[in-house]
Write a structure and sequence with these properties.
With about 80 residues, the protein is mainly α. Helix 1 crosses helix 2.
Length: about 80
C-alpha cells in the first residue's frame, strides 16, 4: 500500500518545497491552472444567477421606412 501512495506523497512534498522556496512561480502556476477550469465553470453559474448578455451593438445605420426623396440644391446635376 505504501508504494501506491508514494508518488502522491513525493509530489505533495515537492509542491510544499516550491511554495516555500519560490512562492511567486508556484502561485503563478496555480492561478494559471485554475483559469481554464473557470472558463468552463463560470458561464453556467452566471446563467443560474440570471445573467443575460447585453444586446449586440448595431453595425449599420437604420434605413427609414419611407420612400427616398431626391437630393436638391447641391448643383450636382
Amino acid at each position: 500500500m505504501a508504494s501506491f501512495t508514494a508518488p502522491f506523497r513525493t509530489t505533495y512534498r515537492y509542491l510544499q518545497r516550491q511554495a516555500h522556496e519560490s512562492p511567486v512561480l508556484f502561485y503563478s502556476v496555480v492561478m494559471g491552472s485554475i483559469g481554464p477550469v473557470f472558463a468552463y465553470a463560470v458561464p453556467p453559474i452566471r446563467e443560474s444567477f440570471g445573467y443575460r448578455p447585453a444586446e449586440p451593438i448595431p453595425t449599420t445605420y437604420p434605413i427609414p421606412k419611407r420612400p427616398r426623396r431626391p437630393v436638391q440644391g447641391y448643383e450636382d446635376e
